[in-house]
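Below is how a single chain appears once it has passed through the pipeline. First comes the sequence as given, then the structure the pipeline wrote out for it. We keep one example in the README because the format questions we get most often are answered faster by looking than by reading.
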Amino acid sequence: MSPEMKGKIPKGATIDQWVKDLAPDKRAIVQELRKIIKKAAPQAKEVIMYSWPWYKVNQPIAAMIVAGDHVTLELYRGANLKPAEVPLEGTGKTMRHLKIFDAAEIKKLPIAELIKEAVEFDAADKK
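Resulting structure:
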C-alpha cells in the first residue's frame, strides 16, 4: 500500500481489495476483526463510509481504521456500552475505540461481546 493512502480505502476499491493490499500485520488484524464482527452481528452490513469499513444495522455500530502501528476498532456508540474488561478509549460524547497492535491480542479482547451489545443498543435505540 502506498504511504499516500494512509490506510484508507481508495475511491472505487472494495473492502476486500483494500484488505488484500494492507501490510501483512494490519491485514491479519483486519481479517480477524471482520470474522468476529460478522459472527457476532450477522445482520450487520459491511459498508464503506468516510473511506473506512463500517458495520451498520440500523445505524453504524463499528468501524475499522488502520493507523500507523495499529488498527482501531471504533465503536460508534461506545460511550453507551457497559464498561468492558478492557477499557475503551475516547472522551467524546458517543464514540469509543480500542487500539489493536497485534492479531494475537484479539483473542484476549471481548470484541464479540462489545459488538453484540452495540447491536442490542442499536435495536433498542430504534424503538
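The first helix runs from residue 15 to 21.

See the next section for the split statistics.
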